[in-house]
Amino acid sequence: METLNAFAAALSIGSAAIGASLSIGMIGSKGTEAIGRNPEAASKVQTGMILAIAFAEAIAIYALVVALIILFV
Fold this sequence. Notes:
The protein has helices spanning 2-37, 42-72. By secondary structure, the protein is mostly helical.
């Protein structure tokens, strides 16, 4: 049973890390593209990018918490 819990924890944190890294990469890509098209709006785009990256990273942190709960409960 412990092996199954460890596998579930690894699967949850791994999939969340992949999802978060893909979303952060896409946010950065589209943000720099938007700034390249309209440099005057750079501060507004950058603020939105930072907020979106923080939310994407929060999902990975929640998955880490879930993985630790799975392992130690």
